[in-house]
Amino acid sequence: MSATRKKLVGILALQGDFEAHEKALKTAGADTLQVRTAQQLDRVDALIIPGGESTTMLKLLGYMNLLEPLRSFAATKPVFGTCAGAILLANKVESPNQESLGIIDMTIERNAYGRQIDSRVAEVDYEGRPFEAVFIRAPIIRKTGPGVRVLAEYQGTPVLIEQGKHLASTFHPELTGDSRVHSLFLSKI
Amino acid sequence: MIVNDEQFRLKVGLAEMLKGGVIMDVINAEQAVIAEKAGASAVMALERVPSDIRKEGGVARMSPVRIIREIMGAVTIPVMAKARIGHFTEARILESLGVDYIDESEVLTPADDEHHIAKRDFTVPFVCGARNLGEALRRIAEGATMIRTKGEAGSGNIVEAVRHIRTIIREMRHLTILGKEELVHEAKVLGAPLDLVEWVAEHGRLPVPNFSAGGIATPADAALVMQLGAEAVFVGSGIFKSSDPEARAKAIVKAATYYKDPAMLLEASEELGMAMPGLDISKLPAEELMQTRGW
C-alpha cells in the first residue's frame, strides 16, 4: 500500500454545473469533494471552479468570506476555472468590471459572444487533435500576461490557457465525453 | 426522441449552468438589478407576478417588449421571459428579442387548449412546467430542455410544489424497477413516448435538468424542494411581494446552495420579516388553479 493518500480534488459547489465536473473528474480517475466552506477547502489538493453565473458565485463567496481563503489556496495549490470559473480567476474582468480572485494574469470579457442564441459548439485544436468545445454565453480572453501559455484558440483568441499550475477555459470540457483537459489538470497536482 | 445534437446540448448546457441557483420573477429593470445584486442566477421577465395575476384576473400575456428589453439591458445574468402555452408567435418574438430562455408557462392565460409549442424548431431554449412524469416527458418530447415542477404559482404555499416534485421522483423511481415489457404499458399510462420512458427507466432521472417552482416564499421552502430533488428553484411572487425583497432574495440564494446545512439555513432565515401572504389551495375554486393548465 502506498504511504501517500490519494489526492482529493475539490469542486466549488456554490452554484453551477459542479456535478458535471464531478462526473468528469471521476471518469479521469480522481476522488472528489464538493466545496462550500473554508473547512472543506482545507481538505482538498486542487480545486475546480465550475461554470454557472459568476455574479452569483461572487455573491456567495462574499457572503461566506471565501475570497481570501481561495486566494491563499491558489498560492500553493492548482485551480482550474471553466467559463464563470475562468472569469473568477482573472485579474481583470470587463463588461462589466467586477471583482475577481486575480489568480491568472488575464483580462476577460463577459458574455462576449452575445446571448444564449449565440452559444455554440466548435472544434478547437488541442494537442494536435480536435477537442469539442461547448461555449455557453461564454467570455473571451482579451489579454494574457507573460506567464500565461495558450493551449487552445478559437477565432484567434485563447480559449484554454495555463499559468503554472493553474488552468482556465472559456468553454466547458465537463460537458463533453473528452476527459483530456481534466487529465491535464490532474497531472498538475 | 432524445436527439443529442448540438442544439440540444447547448440548450441543456445553459440549464446546467443554472443549477443550484435561484431564478427570480421581475417586472421591471429596477427589480432585475435587485435580483442580480442578491445573487440570482437568472431573472424571469413578466408583466405581473402570479399573485397579482390571480388577484386582478383578465388575460395574462407575454410582457411588453420594451420592459423585457430594459431588463436585458440592466443585468448581465440570463434573462428569461414567459410566453403563453401554445403561443408560438409570442415565442418567436421573444426569440428575435434574444431572451436566453422562454418559459412556456401556465401562469399566463393559455393560447391553445390542446397543443403546446413545437419547441424543437426554435434556437432559443424552453422551460416548461409539469405536475407529473407524463407531463414532463411530453414537454421534453416537444423540445423543452428544462422542466420545472409547477406548484401553484402566486399562492405562497409550498404544498403543491412538494406534491409535484415528489410525484415526479416517485414515478421515475418506479420505472427503474420495471421490466422492459412493462415499460410499453407504462408509456401508455403516462401518455409519454416510449423511448423517453425507457431512457428514464435506465437512468432514474429526467434527460434534462429538473427545477422547482410555484409557492416558494422562504429560504426553508427553497431548501425543502432542493432536498426533495429539485436542482434549482424559481421564485415568483415570493420575493417582491414580501416585506423585505432584498434580504429575502439574498437569503433564498444562500438556502439554494446550503440546502443541506441547517445552521446555514437558520442564519439565512434569521433576520427576515414577513413572507408574502399565502393561500389555502384546498379552498381555491378549481377554475382558479394555474397548475391544471397544460396538456
Question: Explain this structure to me?
Answer:
The complex is a heterodimer of chains A (189) and B (295). Chain A is an alpha/beta fold and 189 residues long. Chain A has one domain: Rossmann fold (3-Layer(aba) Sandwich), CATH 3.40.50. Chain A is 26% helix and 34% strand. Chain A has helices at 18-27, 38-43, 54-63, 67-76, 84-89, 180-187, and strands at 8-12, 31-35, 46-49, 79-82, 90-94, 104-109, 120-126, 129-135, 140-144, 149-154, 157-163, 166-169. Chain A has a 7-stranded mixed sheet. In chain A, strand 10 (149-154) and strand 11 (157-163) form a beta hairpin. Chain A is globular, with a radius of gyration of 15 Å. Chain A starts with 7 loop residues before the first strand and ends with a helix. Chain B is of the alpha/beta class. Chain B has an 8-stranded parallel sheet. The longest helix of chain B is centred in the middle third of the chain and has 18 residues, at 159-176. In chain B, 58% of the residues are buried. The A-B interface holds A 13-20, 36, 51-53, 55-56, 59-60, 63, 83-84, 95-96, 110-111, 114-117, 119-121, 134, 136-137, 172, 175 and B 6, 9-10, 13-14, 16-21, 36-42, 72, 76-78, 95, 98-101, 123-125, 250, 253-254, 256-258, 261.
